[in-house]
Design brief:
With about 260 residues, this protein is mainly alpha-helical. The chain has a single domain, classed as Serine Threonine Protein Phosphatase 5, Tetratricopeptide repeat (Alpha Horseshoe). About 65% of the residues lie in helices and about 0% in strands. It is built from twelve helices and no strands.
Length: about 260
């Protein structure tokens, strides 16, 4: 028995809604890379929301170039969407950081690195645009993280402080600022005083645990690549993605127009 066009559309819409529900669960479970193996029904690739989900999958799967393509497509489909802008920025930051690490390694070998424009600068600009559209402590935290990756410690400090001005209990900005203070060589007593005055309900990263335990030599300033002293993104756009996927899963066509 043949399937009438209306029946086929109903099945496709149901598939799209189920796909959004599956993708939402994967994002919330912290494994968005698995979104890439989901089979999308016809037309899903045209949706900015699904492109944003594929960007999250590619970033989690360590393919920032593919993530950048998906995120840019999502941004083009929804101009001015802060989450899409953030996804583009995250991909640019990952690419820029990878290039910087490679350049540093090449420099140690005495070989000249490339002279390409640093994508970290583009990432910072995009996040600033996103923060204008959607002011939040999370986005200012992300601006501070990218500034720190670029080596602009003063800019990073200012961004983390602006994040905390918007939300004094922001756990990412609080820990990131303390880690930045370590990198900048602030007095250990000042760092511990700052942490003692914050509303923080999160596990401290290794560098700050060492400092709290009295191992000040191990907790002091270090190279930007040293893992105990790196700041982190907030991933606010990924939480927003999960929220949008959940809403789309309740719609007949998975959010399709």
């Amino acid at each position: 028995m043949s399937i009438r066009p209306s029946e086929q559309r109903g099945r496709t819409n149901g598939d799209a809604a189920r796909l959004c529900a599956d993708a939402c669960r994967l994002v919330e479970a912290g494994c968005p890379a698995r979104i890439a193996v989901l089979t999308a029904p016809p037309g899903m690739l045209e949706l900015p929301l699904w492109r944003l989900a594929l960007a999250a999958a590619a970033l989690d799967g360590s393919d920032p170039v593919a993530a950048l393509e998906h995120a840019r497509t999502a941004d083009a489909g929804e101009p001015g969407d802060w989450a899409a802008l953030s996804a583009v920025a995250y991909a640019q930051a990952r690419i820029g950081w990878d290039r910087r690490v490679r350049r540093d390694a090449v420099s140690l070998l005495g070989v000249e690195g490339g002279a390409d424009r640093d994508p970290l600068l583009e990432a910072r600009t995009l996040l600033a645009r996103a923060a204008e559209i959607h002011p939040s402590s999370s986005l200012w935290n992300d601006i501070g993280h990218v500034a720190g990756l670029s080596g602009d410690l003063d800019g990073a400090r200012a961004a983390f402080l602006r994040s905390l001005a918007l939300h004094p209990a922001d756990r990412h900005a609080t820990i990131n600022l303390a880690v930045l203070m370590l990198r900048a060589g602030d007095p250990h007593a000042d760092i511990m005083d700052f942490l003692g005055r914050t509303q923080l309900a999160a596990t401290l990263p290794p560098a700050l645990l060492l400092l709290a335990g009295g191992e000040t030599a191990m907790a002091g300033p270090a190279e930007v690549h040293e893992w105990r002293r790196t700041t982190v993104f907030s991933y606010a756009w990924r939480r927003e993605l999960a929220s949008r996927l959940r809403a789309a899963s309740a719609e007949p066509g998975g959010g399709a127009p």
